[in-house]
Design goal:
Immunoglobulin-like; five-stranded mixed beta sheet; mainly beta; 22-stranded antiparallel barrel; 6 helices
Length: 807
């Protein structure tokens, strides 16, 4: 800890002493007609300095130390601008050209934060994503982001993976792709295994922490992942990527695009196949994905169709590994599919799998009415269908509606299916004045239709010809989710901006649930939420920006909370009040941000172990709980070859009063144990990451990446007997660009790169996730912990070949 605080102190001192000589660079950004362009992003390349243009199109950088600087200017709907200037005291005029084929960015701009939003966020570029994309799922690629903790069921990043932001789990993190909701409408989680290699089609990602800005889909309670797929390119291209390594893991990706055809048309495609045996026993995965887009780009209108999807077939690893097995030195034991033959020998059912496919269809329209008004709307549909198959021992066939007159128990194989559609429309109108105002009015109307059913495909030991029947359960769910939001960004004065964001969201959920007698019947739940947000951002000194924001988020319960309760025992919705304040510094060699947050929950839903009136274990509301902490992120350009980036989150995550319920099998009751000021489960008090990068600017580069996560409790009792131990991992990524990108025509290969990723260099044996349960029997309390161990030292190599001119 002392080293961490010393490093932060050095960063802070350096930030205030690196002003250098009093050279300046200022200018005006305008379009070809001479009209000023507000909100354009001007960046000094090779530094951490970046500003937005003001209402008159002006920008300024001061206290520069060198004599030559190159700037880049980015504005949606215009061609990117790059130019180098001699300093001192240069005043420049930048003229941006209209670029109709860059209207893609407007699709996501209405739901993203910017420099004036007053919220904590990080933009992750295509290049950053590609440098760490060796085939693992997106959560693993995001492992070094601020306040992020990731996990993998199979232990090596393939198959089922997940992430938490500030301790909040996946069903509290809003995910969109091109502004379209991705979270499952019922569970509200995101299953990245259904989107293998989606990173290869990502143009950029914005990760917001906390409530963030208003978006479409599930309520954001811990963060937002806003992913944009590839923008079109000017020139045609093709790419091939092949990677392979430990645990028989491999990935093959092929991409191609036409570039702009006839000044108006563009098409892109990708095919990917991935596989791995996994670190955990039988943790294999077989994954396929595809992507296709085609669009028309006119002077005022863009129409773009996007289709992508994935297929996964993974052996189940979601039960984890028991603590007893880990203590015995067996970190890979997987009990899924285990049964015993007539001789008492353990066997494993080979098709203990999860098999699911999900296809996304999107049609985006963008119309630029004039310089001030832009309108975009999107139609979308997502089709999902699949099942998980499992071997079950000693089952009563009558419970599966199989005609059985005996009282014997039989082994059987069952499948539980999900067949659903999710479709709707999203829309936004954006107004940018030439004065002080940016205004967005947007929203969405989405419908989910889901079928849940189960079937028995094999029953062992029953007479030949016995009918296995049809579906032993059939549930249908319908969810209608509508929202409308208005966002206003207003320049109160030259260096002070105000931000206001108001959202109304309505939900109508129809499902099959229980009444107080335990009988199933159709039910419905309705919600109407109001989620206001507001913030202030001020440039208080050269390179120094401060901000403050307050936001409210409301979130409905998940599917299990509804279907496994009666109307009288159903939990209330959750409410979050989020306060954020921070400071940003952008210097020539140093960039830094400090963000303080306080997240107060009302009626947060947590597992307590209590059995409700229909005999189910469901989540319950706790009256008051909070998360508070400080997030520090920074980057430092040590010299022309070395740089360092890092982040640290220090937090407290507490429930004021929590009651645990334990089953007592001696008298068939539940014992109550009350705790006060207890820690929220899976919420480490320290999360940090650091990356030291060397680049010789001749094609060779190497990065060493460290990640530390402090202890996490498996439940909300703050018990030292039920926790995930702290861990520190060290990874390394190296690359050698043998052939550098070139704009020359006739060059067959425009880029050839070899890469190597070595994970867990210290061969640390650790777990990143887990669960626990307990009970009382024979007057003794028993507790059982299960963990998800992660692989020791492992490696992936990668070959990338690109063809065509650089765009």
């Amino acid at each position: 800890m002392k080293k961490i605080f010393c490093a932060l102190a050095i960063v802070a001192i350096t930030a205030f002493n690196m002003h250098g000589q009093n050279r300046a660079l200022s200018g005006i950004v305008a379009d070809s007609t001479g009209d000023a362009i507000q909100f354009a992003i001007v960046t000094i390349q090779g530094t951490y300095q970046s500003v937005q243009t003001k209402s008159d199109g002006s920008f300024q950088f001061s206290n520069l130390s060198d004599t030559i600087y190159c700037i880049s200017v980015h504005m949606i709907g215009y061609e990117n601008f790059k130019q180098c200037y001699n300093i001192p005291n240069s005043t420049v005029r930048v003229t941006l050209k209209k670029a109709p084929y860059q209207k893609d960015e407007i699709v996501v701009s209405s739901t993203r934060a910017d420099q004036n939003s007053g919220v904590a966020y990080t933009n992750i570029s295509k290049e950053e994503l590609a440098s760490q994309n060796y085939g693992q799922d997106l959560p693993i690629v995001l492992n070094t982001q601020t306040s992020v903790v990731t996990t993998s069921d199979a232990g090596n990043g393939f198959g089922y993976t997940g992430l938490r932001i500030r301790g909040s789990d996946a069903n509290r993190i809003n995910v969109t792709i091109n502004g379209i909701p991705v979270n499952d409408a019922e569970s509200q989680g995101t299953f990245w295994v259904d989107l293998p290699d989606v990173v290869s089609s990502a143009e950029n990602i914005q990760l917001q922490r906390g409530v963030g800005t208003s978006t479409n889909g599930a309520g954001s309670f811990g963060g937002t992942l806003n992913l944009q797929t590839e923008l079109n390119r000017k020139n045609s291209y093709s790419e091939m990527v092949a990677s392979g390594g430990s645990f028989n893991s491999w990935r093959g990706t092929a991409k191609a695009g036409t570039g702009i055809i006839g000044d108006h048309w563009s098409f892109d495609m990708r095919l990917s196949q991935l596989g791995s045996d996994g670190f955990i026993d039988r943790g294999r995965s077989d994954l396929h994905s595809w992507y296709f887009s085609g669009g028309y780009y006119g002077d005022k209108l863009m129409v773009k169709g996007i289709m992508f999807g994935g297929r996964e077939r993974t052996y189940q690893c979601w039960y984890g590994v028991s603590e007893d097995s880990i203590n015995a030195g067996n970190f890979t034991y997987n009990s899924a599919g285990e049964y015993f033959d007539s001789s008492g020998n353990a066997q494993y059912y080979k098709d203990q799998i999860d098999a699911y496919g999900q296809d996304y269809y999107q049609l985006h329209f963008v119309y630029a009415a004039n310089q001030s008004w832009t309108i975009n709307w999107s139609l979308h549909a997502t089709k999902g269908k699949g099942y998980y198959e499992e071997y079950k021992e000693d089952q009563s066939l009558s419970e599966y509606l199989i005609n059985d007159t005996s009282s014997t128990l039989n082994d059987l194989v069952r499948r539980r299916w999900l067949d659903n559609w999710f479709y709707g429309i999203t829309y936004a109108a954006q107004y940018n004045s030439l004065c002080k105002t940016q205004f967005i009015l947007g929203g969405a109307s989405n419908v989910y239709e889901g079928k849940h059913f189960g079937e028995v495909i094999t029953a062992i030991g029953i007479p030949a010809g016995t009918s296995l029947g049809g579906h032993y359960y059939d549930d249908y769910a319908n969810k209608q989710d509508n929202n409308v939001f208005a966002k206003l960004n207003y320049s109160l004065r030259k260096n002070l901006n105000a931000y206001l964001d108001l959202q109304a969201r309505s939900i109508r959920y129809s499902f099959t649930g229980f009444d107080t007698t335990g009988s199933s019947l159709p039910q419905q739940a309705n919600y109407l939420f109001f989620n206001p947000k507001a913030g202030l951002t001020a440039l208080v000194a050269t390179r120094h920006t401060v901000y403050f924001s307050f936001g409210v988020g409301n979130k409905e319960p998940n599917r299990d909370d509804f279907t496994n309760s009666s109307p009288s025992s159903r939990p209330l919705h959750e409410t979050l009040y989020d306060f954020e304040t921070g400071w940003k510094f952008g210097g020539t060699k140093l960039g830094a941000e400090v963000n303080l947050y306080y997240m107060h929950y009302t009626n947060q839903l947590v597992l307590t172990g209590r059995v409700n009136d229909v005999g189910a274990y469901t989540r319950e509301n706790v009256d008051a709980s909070f998360r508070r902490g400080v997030e520090v992120s920074f980057g430092y350009l040590i010299n022309k070859q070395f740089s360092f980036t890092g982040n640290v989150t220090l937090s407290q995550n507490k429930i004021e009063s929590f009651t645990e319920f334990l089953d007592n099998y001696d008298n068939y009751t539940q014992e109550e144990i009350t705790y006060t000021n207890t820690s929220i489960g899976f919420s480490p008090s320290i999360i940090s990451a650091g990356t030291l990068t060397w680049n010789n600017n001749k094609g060779l580069s190497a990065s060493v990446i460290g990640k530390y996560v402090s202890k996490q409790y498996l439940d909300n009792t703050t018990s030292e007997d039920r926790k995930i131990d702290p861990y520190f991992t060290l990874n390394m990524i190296t690359s050698w660009m043998i052939i550098k990108p070139s704009s020359k025509t006739g060059q067959k290969i425009s880029e050839l790169t070899l890469g190597l990723q070595v994970n867990n260099l210290l061969n640390t044996m650790y777990s990143s996730n887990g669960y626990t349960y307990g009970f009382i029997s024979d007057a003794e309390t028993s507790r059982y912990n299960y963990y998800y161990p992660q692989a020791g030292i492992n490696a992936m190599g990668m070959l990338t070949m690109k063809f065509g001119r650089v765009n």
